[in-house]
Design goal:
74% of the residues lie in helices and 0% in strands. By secondary structure, the chain is mainly alpha-helical. The chain is globular and about 55 Å long.
Length: 208
């Protein structure tokens, strides 16, 4: 991590430790040791260990949003329901997620074990759903996600799209090895599933 700023090293080491030990198991002392900084410097940049986690999740959301926005715009503008023109964009998202397994492991772990209702997993799912709404044509994108019937659509988005994508990212190599296939094949299959589920999600949002 030579050449990186202290703040960047702190975030990188926090992400590593949260993924290895879980949020509850990671100690600020160890984050400081790995980052090569004084513990007091961590609290200079971040209010608490929870604040560190929040910054990691928000950074992940900010990085992923442009990729998904581009994909949703493509899908919303396609008249042919069988078109595969968006597959490259879906592949880019899958590759992006695969490169960020640590933060995804943290998000999933905290989703299953976190004490707060507003876990990173649910926050990520909500942001993903609202991004889908924002990509729709004008009268439909004006929806906030709080209208009647939207809870069911958010439920569908979470269990048909967000959760499978995140779980695949963590289990990709193990699944392929266990079933004697390759990640090339599994990514092709996942791309098809994501394309179909995203189209269904966009189509299910009623007109304004």
């Amino acid at each position: 991590m030579a050449g990186l700023s202290a703040r960047t090293r702190i975030l990188a080491c926090a992400e590593e430790l949260f993924a290895e030990l879980g949020f509850q198991g990671a100690r600020v002392d160890e984050i400081a040791r790995r980052a090569g900084v004084n513990k007091a410097l961590i609290y200079y940049y971040f209010q608490s260990k929870q604040d560190l986690l929040n910054h990691l999740v928000e950074r992940f959301l900010a990085e992923s949003r442009p990729l998904k926005a581009g994909l949703l715009e493509q899908l919303a503008g396609q008249a042919d329901p069988h078109s595969t023109a968006s597959d490259d964009a879906i592949g880019s998202i899958i590759s992006f997620l695969a490169e960020r397994r640590n933060i995804i492991m943290i998000i999933l772990n905290e989703g299953f074990h976190g004490e707060s209702d507003a876990t990173p997993l649910l926050r990520y799912a909500e942001a993903s759903f609202r991004d889908s709404l924002a990509a729709l044509p004008t009268t439909r994108s004006a929806r906030t996600g709080n209208e009647p019937g939207m809870s069911r659509l958010a439920f569908r988005s979470f269990f048909h799209l967000v959760l499978p994508l995140l779980c695949y990212t963590v289990l990709e190599d193990r699944w392929a090895q266990y079933h004697g296939t390759t990640t090339v094949d599994t990514r092709v299959w996942l791309t098809q599933i994501v394309r179909e589920n995203l189209r269904a999600e966009l189509a299910a949002v009623p007109d304004g």
